[in-house]
Amino acid sequence: EDQVTQSPEALRLQEGESSSLNCSYTVSGLRGLFWYRQDPGKGPEFLFTLYSAGEEKEKERLKATLTKKESFLHITAPKPEDSATYLCAVLNTGTASKLTFGTGTRLQVTL
Amino acid sequence: DTEVTQTPKHLVMGMTNKKSLKCEQHMGHRAMYWYKQKAKKPPELMFVYSYEKLSINESVPSRFSPECPNSSLLNLHLHALQPEDSALYLCASSQGIGGGTDTQYFGPGTRLTVL
User: Fold this and answer.
1) What is the pLDDT of residues B74-112, one digit of tens each?
2) Residues of B with CB under 8 A from a CB of A
3) Which of A45, A91, A101 sits opposite B102 (nearest CB)?
4) Phi and psi (nearest 5°) for A19?
5) Do residues B31 and A97 lie in contact, with contact meaning Cβ atoms separated by under 8 Å?
6) How many whole angstroms separate alpha carbon A72 and alpha carbon A56?
7) Cys staple from B50: which of A12, A92, B55, B91, with CB 3.0 to 4.6 Å?
């Protein structure tokens, strides 16, 4: 059974204080790993798709990396508007379209 | 543009009511999904439509009935719901299934409250 574990559960940063969120996964065959951002009461907003170990993607203050066992979402010099829950999910090559989500990291960035 | 729209934004219904949730996308995506999300939990997959055919039903109770009238629209018909069905219902779409087309784009959700 596919498993996704995200850590920490919650993270509080000061504005400008860089950090990383971790997503550890166990899957028999990885089709893709996805990062989403979700604001309270809203739908998840797509951030990145990573397909193979060693792949990296960047968008503004965010950078996602992938190894064979985990993915990191690096946040550089965060701003208060980066406060949200960040969800990681994996797709198994054998289960077509069913995303397995982690429970998320709740990020709060304060002034 | 990667926009999925959902209506209504909020819905309150009694246990004997019949209502429908609607989802629309104009990105030419051929796979559409319904998810249910409870507070502080990740989304849970309910149904998947691929090329307008139901391809996955995650053992969802029959009081939830999906419908895909065409490639752009997805409905979720609700009947005789229970209070524990109160949740955020999310629609998503992807270009396809497999071959690098898997990225799912989510709508804003419908907040459903069952009294």
Assistant:
1) 999 999 999 999 999 999 999 987 766 789 999 999 999
2) 2, 4, 6, 31, 33, 41-43, 45, 48, 50, 55-56, 58, 88, 90, 92, 94, 97-98, 100, 102-109, 111
3) A91
4) -160, 180
5) yes
6) 10
7) B55
